[in-house]
């Protein structure tokens, strides 16, 4: 599985030929690739959210506790694997339109290899940051799209004239599957599992924390007191 990972990133043309040959020998050959490499973003997410943390305002750092970080990482892993199988189903369903006859396992395997750049992009989760996430996801999305259009005619053995339409349909369905899996997953983690956050909120050196600061009286009463305390002129 390791050679396919690196050849997909360096020589995708040759990689798809080798992958198709391996899948014909063993239609479940993709499982090791999927189940092992899907661990990479999950593990990186755990390390990043538990030990590195992220910042929303200056001088403040936020972490997840061990339980919440593990739950988030497990949900991400499950979502990746489930999403790959769902996309394999839709890919096979659409293949009839383009005169392709792949098996379900071959379709799932094809998707597992197409999303390989997203596995590698999971390294970005080691340092949770908005701009880091945007950068690595955009780069991974571009290269996955390239793998999709290069791999369709070689792996599915379809006419080059159908490649663009088949690839565009696959890309669109993939976006819908991503949204419909990720959003419920995040909502479930946030609302049902009740994650616990840890913060290093900076302390005001003059008054301590916010609750220890002296509270001003309502404006009307305070102004009236000052007026009554003025010396008679």
Automatic annotation (TrEMBL):
GO CC aspect terms: membrane
Keywords: Membrane, Transmembrane, Transmembrane helix
Membrane topology annotation: Multi-pass membrane protein
One of the Pfam families matching this protein, by short name: Yip1
UniProt feature, compositional bias: Basic and acidic residues: 210-233
Compartments (UniProt record): Membrane
Regions crossing the membrane: 30-49, 69-91, 103-127, 133-152, 164-192
Keyword Transmembrane: yes
Domain Yip1 stretches: 7-179
Highest taxon above the source species: Bacteria
Annotated stretches, region: Disordered: 203-233
Organism of origin: Stutzerimonas stutzeri
The name this protein goes by in its record: YIP1 family protein
